[in-house]
Amino acid sequence: MIYREFIADQTRDCAVVAHRGIWRAAPENSLAAIELAISGGYDVVEIDICRSADGGLFLLHDETLERMTGLDQRPEALTSSGLAALHLRDRDGGEENSVTLERLPSLGDVFELTRGRIFLHLDVKDRKVIPDVIALARAMGCDGQVNCWASLESSEDLAWIRQTILPHDVLFLAKTRLNVPDADRQLALLEELSPSVCEIYFDSLEELEALKPITGNTGMALWVNTLDSIACAGFTDTAALADPDAVWGRLIDAGISAIQTDEAAALKSYLAARRA
Fold it and tell me: CB-based burial of residue 239 (10 Å sphere; 0-12 exposed, 13-18 middle, 19+ buried)?
């Protein structure tokens, strides 16, 4: 099954999206963390992508290499060979975590590892890099298992998405905010684009009512983050561990069908319990 078909399947369970791989047992954004997401049976793994000085594509969340490698430089200041030689600190990095044998992986390494095994949410910080990311995915035969995302806040965003991403037939995830003064404009843009999946931000579940005409007409799937740092309306991983029905259960009952989390194992167990 390709990613687009998986997302569109309204009979499937809520998708479990493992944030930066299983980083509590391996360095975040590492091949080891991604392999653990695969072996754990999760649906999607989220990874962060940067570019090197010579145009290589690598995995890194931050603007600098310091947290994960101890090197206080931007990734675009190093060549591909320089980045590939760097060892990663364990877990989420920082001085408190030891240096491991895992090296900073290239996106090509990740595509080789994951081809046909798990879907990939590609978080490309600089959207100018997205065309190169899509080109590599297509060249390596992985374009059916990846998604790209971008904010959809203006007519300029809509034009850029249509010109840059949609012609390549890669699954696109729009990011829309329901908790801002121009929410009506963003909803209008979302309805015009009608993507297969939308990442939403909100201050209350009641705000999701505004999406029903779009989801009902298009079958668009809804994606939410319960990561403690960016969760909406208190629907956090920490709260979910204490009361999963009050967080993950309420989100799913409200129509959410993809949840990005740092607690992938707990979410998967909860979904199994709901099915029982």
Answer: middle
Superfamily for the 3-48+107-275 domain: Phosphatidylinositol (PI) phosphodiesterase (3.20.20.190)
What is the pTM (predicted TM-score) of this model?
0.97
Where exactly are the structural domains of the chain?
3-48+107-275
* Residue whose pair of structure tokens reads 């965003």 in the numeric block: 157
Q: State the pLDDT at residue 126.
A: 92
Between CA 41 and CA 35 the distance in angstroms is 10
For residue 1, pLDDT over 90 is answered with: no
Cα-based distances in Å from 183 to 83, 186, 214, 231? 40, 5, 14, 18
Closest C-alpha to 263, from 231, 233, 232: 231
pLDDT band of residue 188 (cuts 50, 70, 90) is very high
- Report the C-alpha gap between 201 and 154 in whole angstroms: 16
Burial of 163 (0-12, 13-18, 19+ CB in 10 A): exposed
